[in-house]
Design a protein that fits this description.
The complex is a heterodimer of chains A (about 250) and B (about 425). By secondary structure, chain A is α/β, with parallel strands linked by helices. Chain A is built from 8 helices and 10 strands. Chain A starts with 7 loop residues before the first strand and ends with a helix. Chain B folds into 2 domains: about 180 residues, no CATH class; about 210 residues, no CATH class. The radius of gyration of chain B is 34 Å and the shape is elongated. Classes of the chains: A alpha/beta (about 250), B alpha+beta (about 425).
Chain lengths: ~250, ~425
Amino acid sequence: MQTKSDKIMIRLENVMRVYKVGVERIHALDGLSLELRENEYVAVMGPSGSGKSTLMNVLGCLDQVTSGCYELDGENTTGMSDAALARVRNERIGFVFQSFELLSRSSALKNVEMPLIYSRNGWWSRRKRATQMLHRVGLGDRIRHRPNQLSGGEKQRVAIARALICSPSILLADEPTGNLDSKTSEDILALFDQLHAEGQTIILVTHEESVAKHANRIIRMKDGRIFTDLPAAEDQARRLELTGVLGKVTK
Amino acid sequence: MKAVLAIPLAFLRLFYQSIYLALGQIWANKMRSVLTTLGIVIGVASVTAVIAALTGLKAKILTQVETLGTNTIFISPRVPERGRRQHAGWWQMRFRPEQMDGLLEHCPSVAALSRVGGVGWRTVKYGEQSVDRVEVQGIEPDFHKIEHRPVVLGRVFSPIDDMQVRQVCLIDSKLRDKLRLDRDCIGETIRIGYHAFRIAGVIESRPQMNFGESSQERYELFIPFKTLEKLGDPSMWAMATGKSAETLEEAQAEIKFFLRRTRGIRPGEPDTFRVESLQSALDTFNKISVIVTMVAGGIVGISLLVGGVGIMNIMLVSVSERTREIGLRKAVGAKRSAILTQFMIESVTLCFVGGLVGVGFGQLLTMAIANIPQVKLDLAHIPLWAIGLSFSFAGFVGIVFGMVPAIKAAQLDPIEALRHE
């Protein structure tokens, strides 16, 4: 089912992201290198403060690296102007947030077509494309509904439709199931699986192992560095092994 | 070719995107938008109404002045502001009739001259009828060449009336009605004090000049200038016309020269009289009316500024309320310029719509003012330039006061904005 491609979608090389808090310098990303190929499905895990969010912001071109190099889809984004970064976000990146971030006064359709308003040539076809996209995520009958008339799962579907409307190179999801119950979470994750099967590159940040299971590559972070970076099966095996050891110790 | 078109196309895209978003936002917050623009509406309405009223006042005065003729020169005595006669009494400075003798021969640019004398208000009687407060004025025959007040019945004064000091009079048509005289009253005799006067003609009433106090009617009675001396010591002034509008200045200069000689003013001393034409009075009036319009417009313009502050306040609230939304828009690819223009267009649109509604209200106010009978501002209307001015000022207010919130929105960091509670 997977179309293996060798095209490198993301390349991070020795990336540092340093914040200054007072006189203290915090290394949120501390010399991190990473390569992602097309149609990979990656889960990023780690305790809070491990640099996951910073990594997501950097990958999503919301934040600039302090040093190092970030190549997205073969294009170096480091040192790009604000306007150029906005364009990259618009055309290459789709965001899905934990709290959906829908415009409460606008219909599902308006929410989905919003990125096209800022795009170069999507303006005139925005209604058609947004309708198609809503059908694709299974909300064909909810087009005119406002967010407060939708369930949590439906809201997240709208948000996913919005993220995909510009056919982005990568889909960045930051705890997409964090605000949903487990049943709805499974539905959303099934949608991600489906998108992955259709060839979408997905990066997903999560705390939950059950969510991470859906990915085929799991990156665990600690102190701004990659702690482990393994295919899902190996990662699973290691985790079981570790819990086994831990179980023995606690016994 | 593509590269040349790219920049204007990008601008166009930015523009329609922003208008679309701004209108959507205004529509989504209808109530708030209405309240926000109220300040602008009231400001523009009062600016246009004030300007309309002043325009009406000016038009009214101008039409009345024009019926008198702008070619007329008024000559009146004056106490000088400096020189040895600056403390002289008004009575000392009065004209004597003989000071004007021979003026026409010495002033080639002057076509006609009439001495006009007044003895104040008198009581006029006809039979049992009596009218108080009648303005009795003595005029010379040339008066009819200068003042455009037709004698509707009877005859005008002739030089013989003056030479023979006849006791004849021209009666104002309103006074005729007030005295309950016959419509054709020529030859009837009326009394001013103990003097009897035969009516020689009926002169058209002067158009109402006074504003507001229409209850106080003015009645006029004209008698030959020489005859006036019988009624008392007149205070005197004079009217003249120039031969043409072009030589009006020359005529005034000639009269000044002549009067300085006959009134014995030494070189270097200031004039003890005033020579004015309606044209110069009109110029002064125009200047004053421009100043008054500017001052009134400026004062009312302050209310527009207050409206602008209201707009800024609401826009700032809107920016902080929509921080997350702005963060999201940036995350999905809105450039700073797009956010900036969206908020700018929002405030400018609010101001323009406010201006439009304001001009409408101003028109209603103007119609209301024009229809109050006592105020006599029936010529009040909003001039086009006032509409343009209000609009551009409203737009200016929108840009200036929308600038700060829009810049604030555009400068938001998307990560911070998305974390905002």
